[in-house]
Amino acid sequence: MQPTFFSQTAQQWTVSKLTFYIRMLLEENEILQDVWVQGEISNLSRPASGHVYFTLKDASAALRCVMWKTSAVRLGIPLQDGKAVEVHGKIGVYEVSGQYQLYADQIRPIGEGALYQEFVRLKAMLEAEGLFAPERKRLIPMFPKKIGIVTSATGAALRDMLNTLRRRLPLVEVILAPSPVQGIEAPPALVKALQSLVLQSPEVIILARGGGSIEDLWAFNDERVVRAVAMSTVPVICGVGHETDFTLCDFAADLRAPTPTAAAELATQITMIDLRATNSNLRSRLASATLNSIVERKSFLSSLVSQLRYVSPERRILSERQRVDELARRAHSSLFHHIQLQSAHIKGMQRRLEALNPNAVLARGYAVVTREDDGSVISRVAQAKEGQQVRIRVSDGQIEAEIKKS
Amino acid sequence: MPKPSSKKERPIEELTYEEALAELEEIVSALEGERNQLEESIKLFERGQALAARCGELLESAELKVKQLAGDEILPFEDLSE
Q1: What b/e sequence results for A303-318 when a residue is b if at least 16 CB atoms lie within 10 Å of its CB, and e otherwise?
Q2: Helix, coil or strand: residue A214
Q3: How far is CA A221 from CA A150, A243, A377, in A?
Q4: Min Cα–Cα distance to chain B from A285, Å
Q5: CB A229 within 8 A of CB A253
Q6: Rounded Cα–Cα distance for residues B77 and A149 (Å)
Q7: Which A residues, 182 through 221, put their C-beta within 8 Å of a C-beta on chain B?
Q8: Quick check: helix, strand or coil at residue B58?
Q9: CA A291 – CA A123 distance, rounded (Å)
Q10: pLDDT value at position B79?
Q11: Cα gap A190→A226, rounded to integer Å
Q12: Please, which pLDDT band fits residue A290 given cuts at 50, 70 and 90?
């Protein structure tokens, strides 16, 4: 009988080949490539390389774990021996020591998985109710006079916000409704703070809390608080935790701010710088509008003066004077013309008179015979009688004569 | 035209920042727009200057007022963190 270890059916391996085969088996198993493993940290080691080595163990087993530097720098929580955690990663084999181990990429405190499940469930439910709908979001006023703040009276978040408001817009009046922001008493206290703040009618409310673990921020995932934010009649800015933290209050608020300081900035969109600029702009518009109106008035005045000059009687006098001269000239020339006409007429008349002068006829040898008794002219034979005394007038005198026969 | 300043000539030192700013804006647009009586224009200008000075003064002297709700009461806020 052959001992089994001489079996001819057994395959021959080298350590390397077998180890590689085992590695392939593990790494091809899909389940092993995406696991969350619960356990307690032990043998934690962080050499200068930045990689993190530890063993995860529970009551009856241990698992070697390594987290490369690239994942380790994103770790949200401090690691320490004895801490109960959930580690996510994939199973692989370190061939050099023949060791299978968990290549971790995320580590979270135990219980967070359950919280996350609750978060997802509540978010889906409230979303289905329409509490997060974009059309519910109201605009944040640009220039509020009164800002309400709900946060812890003693937290750094409040100081950060007050400093930001003081720097950006000290004109503002802040009303703080203090409330615990973590622990079991936080949700009802936050709801009450929100409700009493609304009664003070600020124009915007900041709901804020500084950074912390997901448990620390949990009050802002509480259904009562989320509903109170959604129902607020005053617009709400939510600034809880850090940039990467999202709470359900962020979804329900009118505006999400990555941090409390950012929330204070978003609540004061108009700052001192803008107000100073507005003021100096108004000052210069005031000056130039006044100057313009004076310049306008001056030019209006000077145009009135020139219009006045245009209608002034001085001009009219000059033109009247000219008209008189003109008339005088025309009168003179027409008179002259008239005189000329008259004198020509007189000359004509003289000539005609000349022609009618009886002496001129007598000078040509004609004579005029008149009766001696009554002086009448004898111009026809019938007027003459025999023996009648007449006078014959010639050019240089008259002759007395007696009609011999007619 | 209606004279914007004559109907509510309140003492400048009684005005809040918002009131002073609103009146200043009104005066500037009145001066930029319609023609006023010269005397009125000068009055507007002078009041505008005083308003602008008031705004600047209020801006520079403003100190954040913080109050705290305690039940139904409003108290001045005392920073307990320091």
Answers
A1: eeeeeeeeeeeeeeee
A2: coil
A3: 15, 16, 162
A4: 7
A5: yes
A6: 12
A7: 193, 196-197, 200
A8: helix
A9: 62
A10: 63
A11: 10
A12: confident
> Is B38 touching A (CB cutoff 8 A)?
yes
Task: Indicate the residue type of A314.
Answer: E
| Terminal Cα distance for chain B, rounded | 58
For tokens 């940039």, the residue is A243
CA-CA distance, A214 to A182, in Å (whole number)? 11
| Amino acid at the residue A168 | R
Burial of A181 (0-12, 13-18, 19+ CB in 10 A): buried
The DSSP bridge partners found for residue A67 are A52, A104
Is A298 part of the contact surface with chain B (CB cutoff 8 Å)? no
Q: Label residue A17 by pLDDT band (50, 70, 90).
A: very high
- Helix (H) / strand (E) element for B63: namely none
Among A171, A145, A168, A140, which residue's Cα sits nearest to residue A239?
A140
Q: Is residue A39 predicted with pLDDT exceeding 60? A: yes
Distance in angstroms (rounded) separating the CA atoms of residues A204 and B77: 19
Kindly report, residue by residue over A85-132, the tens digit of the pLDDT. 999 999 999 999 999 999 999 998 887 777 788 888 999 999 999 999
Q: What are phi and psi of A39, to 5 degrees?
A: 180, -175
Kindly report the average pLDDT of chain A as a whole number.
89
| A166–B contact, CB cutoff 8 A | yes
Instruction: Assess whether pLDDT exceeds 60 at residue A2.
Output: no
Q: What is the pTM of this model?
A: 0.59
Place of tokens 């004569």: A401
Residue B78 in tokens: 């005392």
Task: Classify residue A32 by its DSSP letter.
Answer: G
**Beta carbons of A286 and B24 less than 8 Å apart:** yes
Other C-beta atoms lying within 10 Å of the C-beta of residue A116: 12
Contacts of A392 (CB under 8 A, 6+ apart): A367, A368, A369, A398, A399, A400, A401
Which distant-in-sequence residues (6+ apart) come within 8 Å of A35 by Cβ? A88, A89, A90, A91, A102
Residues A327-340 pLDDT 10s: 888 888 888 888 88
Rounded distance between C-alpha atoms, residue A149 and residue A175, angstroms? 6
Taking the C-alpha atoms of residue A293 and residue B45, their distance in angstroms, rounded to an integer, is 11
